[in-house]
Amino acid sequence: MIILPAIDLYKGGAVRLTRGDYSNLTVYDSDPVAVARRFRDAGAGYIHIVDLEGARSGEPACFDVISRIVGECGLDVEVGGGIRSAEVIEKYLGIGVKRVILGTAAATEPGFTRDMARLFGSAIAVGVDIKDGRVAIKGWTELADYEALEFCRITAESGVGTIICTDVSKDGMLGGTNIGLYRKIRAELPMKLIASGGVSTLNEVGTLARLGMDGVILGKALYTGGIDLAEAIKLAQTS
Predict the structure, then answer these.
(1) Which tens digit of pLDDT belongs to each residue from 170-217?
(2) 178 with 172: CB under 8 angstroms?
(3) What value does the CA radius of gyration of the chain take, rounded to a whole number of Å?
(4) Residues with catalytic annotation?
(5) Which CATH class name applies to 2-238?
């Protein structure tokens, strides 16, 4: 299992939201590139980046910062937020991003997801963000007409090989992640599954590894010191 430390970008800074609420935002560092370097120096080989402005507006807003992280930090980067066209996907992949994450577009345009999976293969993942049992879109500000597992099945049928699943109610709360949700999806679908949202202890990291998760995204717990990144990486490799 891989560990993906997270950087959420908003107006140039590395921030974290609580339960996806843009009015409940904490800026942890004004230099996201420096944050990425610290993650790399702690042993990370991967990083998860979300353009929060892009997620809400539908237009990427942090391309320059993401380009610097890719170019300067030597990490395998996946990016989500505002990715709703083949042109944007090609732009990110062109600078060396390893994987792009479709969110709103995947929930509102199933044909688009199928086409992008056909064109770009394993470089495409889908973010399944769950709020009140349904799929959240547009920066978690609206709900689509899909239940979580239903949407996961549709995503699998579209040819996408990786799902990044976030329980929005857990995100940024440091109260534990939704183990039951991941166990259910893991049991029913053969896709690669990355868990995200609320992971707050090393014990949870070990539990998710034993469940067969392919990856875990760590966010607020890294910024507050609740989880040591180097220890989490070691645990994920040995559990």
Answers:
(1) 665 556 788 888 998 899 888 999 999 889 999 999 999 999 999 999
(2) no
(3) 16
(4) 8, 129
(5) alpha beta
